[in-house]
What does this fold into?
Amino acid sequence: MSGPDLNLLVTLDVLLAEGSVARAARRLRLSPSAMSRALARLREATGDPLLVRAGRGLVPTPRAMELRLDVGRIVREAEALLRPAALLDLKSLVRTFTLRNREGFVDTFGPALLARVALEAPGVKLRFVPKPDKESTPLRDGVVDLETGVIGDTTGPEVRAQALFRDRFVGIVRTGHPLLTEPVTPERYAEGDHILVSRGRRERGPIDEALAQRGLTRNIVVTVPSFTEAVALARNSDLIAQVSDRSTMSLHDGVTRFSLPFDLPEFTISMLWHPRMDADPAHRWLRTCLREVCVRQVTFGGNDAKGPATGP
It folds into this structure.
């Protein structure tokens, strides 16, 4: 069974306001015959005459009087829904955004992002959650508004992405570590005790593949799930860690970073969001904030961010 023609609500609203088929037709730019047919359909839909002849004019029935206020309200609300969104007023915006990020990202970029958001939109709150994988389900389900990371095989094809910056892996040791008393060669690097960063059960990484090509292996004495924990362990031991460089800039106190003694490809850190948020003014503003904060931090975030890592 087909539903009612909702266009008739607009017709009913005008008819009840004008009390005349001819005037309602002119207002809606219809012919009098077309308006008469519309009135006939309204009578059939409501089971009521709605407007009846009284002398030379029409008067509303009790049912029409009952409908008049509700019909007018519904039509105004529908018109409001179909208008373009109002201009974004950041000072009065009240909203919570959930951002999903890998470890180190919030430490490095979170303070500057929070400061900008507080300045421009004091009613906005940010909620940072961990990113254990690259699945796009949280974005698709609306659980997460925006996330950062490397695009992977499990990233949904519909997900929007914009590059933030290029990153690379570097070595990290405590300040004064004996490894850095001489040039770091693949052989000297492999001789040390190492920290592996792995969120799953993986026991090898790109480092091990690069060493294997040279006939070398390294001794992994501990595995941790995050760069933050890897840096903390390296800072307080003689262990060697490997972390992403720019994503962990704020974690470099008390440690010295160095270029790895073999080439590993750089990778792109992007922000990702679901396409349903493309046109949302507040979401667009947040994306702009995050992009500009990342560019500024990577460019001016400190000496480590601007210069080459220590090493040969």
Observations:
- Residues 62-81 form the longest helix (20 residues).
